[in-house]
Design a protein that fits this description.
Blueprint lengths: L9 H14 L12 H8 L3 H13 L3 E4 L3 E4 L4 E4 L6 H7 L4 E11 L3 H6 L8 E10 L2 E10 L15 H9 L5 E10 L2 H6 L7 E10 L5 E9 L4 E4 L1
Parallel strand pairs: 3-10
Antiparallel strand pairs: 1-2, 4-5, 5-6, 6-9, 7-8, 8-9
Helix pairs in contact: 1-3, 2-3
């Protein structure tokens, strides 16, 4: 119960109350909190006090206020460290997360010329195309599309349900040493939204990459479409 006769402001008491309840799991990630008017009634305070408490919780990243919908407990944000050369699987395993994959496509294809240029291949060249949907703790998080030269045709015979970096390194002695990345914001197309369990036009992080060996040979060029609400990128 909030106390009016104390030096701690009512909004801060209310903020701490909800913070404790979120931390002990009374409100799970993604849960919608009661409307501000209802919270004011339940705690015998003004709507202004409730609003200030929610604003403070939002500033600390514990809740998210969605226009026209209400206030929701924030989902867990996963960290992707691009300051180190690690695969998606290795990065998630370091955080104690379970990573799985679903193979979407695995075939030979002639890609757009810009990809061939990045792979240092002549126009019209065939490449190995690998498309996968990556899951974190059972939730679809990333659509990964990569192109390789025919030197990597062995990938057509791999299951690729785990780490691609592990397959390259442990089975074929190929080590990715560095990469160039461009990060943009894009909107989910209908097919992408369906795979990621999101609505169409939902904002995504688009990471375009070209990876190289230690001697500067291109390994692959491709992209990752990432649920930006659930990931933060360290660059």
């Amino acid at each position: 119960m909030l106390k009016s006769k104390t030096i701690v402001p009512l909004y801060e008491q209310l903020m701490n109350k909800f913070k404790r309840e979120i931390e002990v799991g009374a409100y799970g990630p993604g849960t919608q909190l009661p409307a501000e008017l209802e919270m004011a009634r339940q705690n015998n305070v003004s709507v202004v006090t409730v609003r200030k408490a929610m604003d403070e919780l939002a500033a600390h990243g514990l809740v998210e206020k969605k226009q026209g919908k209400g206030t929701f407990v924030s989902q867990v944000k996963y960290d992707r460290d691009y300051t180190r050369i690690t695969g998606f699987s290795e990065s998630c395993r370091a955080m104690g997360l379970l990573v799985t994959s679903r193979l979407l496509e695995q075939k030979l294809i002639v890609p757009p010329e810009k990809f061939l240029k990045s792979l240092e291949l002549p126009p019209g060249s065939q490449t190995v195309y690998i498309s996968r949907l990556r899951f974190v703790n059972g939730e679809p998080m990333v659509i990964e599309n990569n192109y390789f030269s025919l030197e990597y045709a062995f990938l057509l015979n791999e299951s690729l349900d785990g780490s691609l970096f592990d397959v390259l390194r442990e089975r074929h002695n190929v080590q990715v040493d560095r990469s160039q990345k461009i990060i943009e914001i894009c909107r989910a197309k209908a097919a992408e939204a369906k795979l990621l369990n999101l609505r169409k036009n939902y904002p995504l992080l688009l990471v375009k990459s070209t990876a190289y060996t230690a001697i500067g040979e291109p390994v692959y060029v491709g992209s990752q479409l990432i649920n930006g609400e659930r990931f933060q990128l360290r660059i």
